[in-house]
Design brief:
The complex is a heterodimer. The model of chain A has no long low-confidence stretch (mean pLDDT 91). Chain A is elongated. Chain A is mostly helical. Chain A is built from four helices and no strands. Chain B has helices at residues 35-54, 57-74, 84-102, 136-141, 143-155, 158-169, 174-181, 185-207. The radius of gyration of chain B is 19 Å and the shape is elongated. The model of chain B is unreliable at 1-8 and 16-28 (pLDDT under 50). The chains are: A mainly alpha, B mainly alpha. The interface between A and B is large, with 44 and 57 residues.
Chain lengths: 84, 212
């Protein structure tokens, strides 16, 4: 029987379905008899899910946007003049 | 500045683009890429990536400008949007890592925390494990959850944060993360697992319900 600590060490490979069948079976057997590890597994899955659900692209800060716009305009001027 | 359709995704890849593959070299298929597009669609994504990997908004601004200049210089020879995100990741991550080395930002790194300290010697849980109150609906709209996650990412040790941001925030596959960071895949998986355990530990006090 593997310990709770060993279960936690294997969770990364378990959730990505990369555990060898025998190890997977031992881990699943442990989960059947260990409610705390089931909760731990659920929270581990939440940690993977959360950034994908909760994080968003934030806009550029206005001063950085202005700096990049200045560089862009310079670039477009050069590009335009080289096409003439 | 309004990113185009798909602008709410976190990764450098707009939602409607194909996922990143192992291909790294620019090619000449697909629609041409314009400088304006790079500015509107990709600069905010680079800024977000740099802010999360460096943990500092001012540092991220310097890096974003540097990447933007590098990209514009290459743009005349790079006109295929389809391969652009793959190449952009390489430029952005290299610039971020170089910036951190130059600024000796690694020096602020303390000893790495023991992520498995929450267990007794016999391998059992040291503390009660409680259910998490993180339904999909809550996470999607909760500004506080967003702030907590961003703060927890900032507090990760650098070697874990790099992998976590690229793998779990940007959703790049482990082999691609390994290539970008100059690591082997096993090291990426090991660091990612430790990063997740630290993220779990950091967020647990805010999202745990009562003990089962």
């Amino acid at each position: 029987m593997i310990t709770c600590r060993e279960v936690v060490e294997l969770l990364g490979d378990f959730v990505s379905d990369e555990l060898p069948p025998q190890q997977r079976e031992r881990l699943e057997q442990h989960l059947h008899g260990c409610p705390p590890c089931v909760l731990y597994l659920e929270s581990y899955r939440a940690i993977i899910r959360l950034p994908r659900q909760a994080l968003r692209i934030t806009s550029l800060p206005p001063h950085l946007e202005a700096r990049l716009r200045f560089i862009l305009n310079d670039y477009l001027k050069i590009e335009h003049s080289s096409q003439e | 500045m309004t990113p185009r359709k798909g602008g709410n995704t976190v990764s450098l890849v707009p939602e409607n683009s194909e996922r990143l593959t192992g291909a790294a070299a620019p090619d000449h298929s697909g629609p041409p890429l314009t400088a304006e597009q790079v500015f509107r669609e990709y600069a905010p994504r680079v800024y977000n990536l740099a802010r999360r990997m460096l943990g500092d908004a001012t540092d991220a601004e310097d890096v974003t400008q540097d990447v933007f200049v590098q990209v514009l210089r290459k743009l005349p020879t790079f006109r295929a949007e389809s391969a652009f995100p793959t190449w952009l990741y390489r430029v952005a991550v290299n610039t971020i890592l170089t910036y951190r080395r130059k600024r000796a930002l690694w020096l602020r790194q303390g000893p790495l925390p023991d992520v498995l300290a929450d267990f007794h010697a016999d391998g059992s849980h040291r503390h009660p494990v409680r259910p998490w109150l993180t339904g999909p609906e809550k996470a999607a709209v909760d500004h506080e959850t967003h702030r907590l996650i961003e703060t927890a990412i900032t507090r990760l040790p650098d070697i874990y944060r790099d992998v976590y941001v690229l793998a779990d925030v940007e959703e790049l596959p482990a082999p691609r993360v390994a290539e970008l960071l100059g690591l082997n895949v096993a090291a990426v998986k090991s660091r990612l697992h430790r990063a997740r355990l630290l993220m779990r530990r950091a967020l647990a006090p805010y999202v745990e319900g009562s003990a089962a």
